[in-house]
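Inverse folding, one chain.
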């Protein structure tokens, strides 16, 4: 009985070879990892600057009592932590999915960027610490960069999953 050894990567048929993502996708993934890191730094900075959040709330609601200010502050911190943790998870998921060339990932990443754009604009309407706004803009810029790279012309074939002939 004769057998054939399992082919090594160098011996695999041409159509089955995994192809590397184009540079534009690699750059998009780097932007996504940067977005995750910036989101984590933003969360840490936000938690260490709680006093500035309290000041911003007092300025925005000068007629509220200390108890009311405290409730708004706690709610704001809880919302920021939840959104930051979800955001970090989404950045990491999208980076891995786009790196793998999943066709849904490019579209979903763009939808997440649109949502982040709306959240950033809403950030201007609520009390915030200036440093928090800076990080929101930096995170948004990472998303903008990722979105631009994902939709460059050389990215499309990678997401189309056309077998190499």
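Residues assigned per position:
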């Amino acid at each position: 009985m004769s057998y054939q050894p399992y082919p090594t990567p160098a011996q695999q048929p041409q159509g089955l070879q995994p192809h590397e993502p184009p540079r534009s996708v690699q750059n998009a993934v780097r932007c996504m990892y940067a977005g995750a890191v910036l989101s984590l730094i933003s969360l840490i900075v936000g938690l260490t600057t709680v006093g500035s959040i309290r000041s911003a709330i007092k300025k925005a609601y000068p007629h509220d009592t200390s108890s009311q200010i405290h409730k708004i502050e706690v709610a704001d911190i809880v919302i920021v932590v939840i959104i930051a943790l979800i955001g970090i998870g989404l950045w990491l998921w999208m980076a891995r999915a786009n790196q793998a060339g999943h066709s849904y990932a490019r579209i979903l990443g763009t939808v997440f960027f649109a949502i982040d754009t709306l959240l950033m604009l809403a950030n201007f309407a609520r009390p915030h610490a200036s440093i928090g706004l800076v990080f929101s803009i930096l995170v948004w810029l990472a998303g903008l960069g990722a979105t631009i790279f994902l939709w460059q012309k050389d990215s499309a074939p990678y997401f189309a999953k056309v077998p190499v002939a």
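Residues 23-155 form one domain. The mean pLDDT is 84.
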